[in-house]
Amino acid sequence: MVLNIIKVSLGSFLALIFFSCTNGGHEQTVANNISKVAQDTCQLDLGKAQSIELHVGCINCHTYDEKRQFAQVPTFKEISNIDSLKLSNFIFKTRHNGYFLKDTILLNHNNKALDTLDECEKRNLIYFIKSNNRHIPQVLKVPESGEDR
Questions:
Q1: Which CATH class is domain 46-131?
Q2: pTM
């Protein structure tokens, strides 16, 4: 009697392990879920963003400080206060749409046109502009040679 109970318990335990270890079509579901996840290959980098800003030549019209170079052109601080989605439309569709292609002075200085930037470069440029208004504290300050440690 005890032997029969042990055999039945062992048999049900083995059946439970067998059914729990088989995937039963679960692999396709996982593969479908993984394929639906969009991978973002764009990495935000302030160094790349600053080089894009230099190649585009934003500093020719916009200034970092409060003093305006032209009356109708906003400063970087004013631009960085705009929401990111509105900023994208403002920069790439509303204000600079084809502007660099028409302006021969900017093209003569080998500035890259805003119209030729890809999506990653646009994101990096927006990231750079938005970071202009952020206060990033210095965690580690290396003392100069004359300062006390």
A1: mainly alpha
A2: 0.55
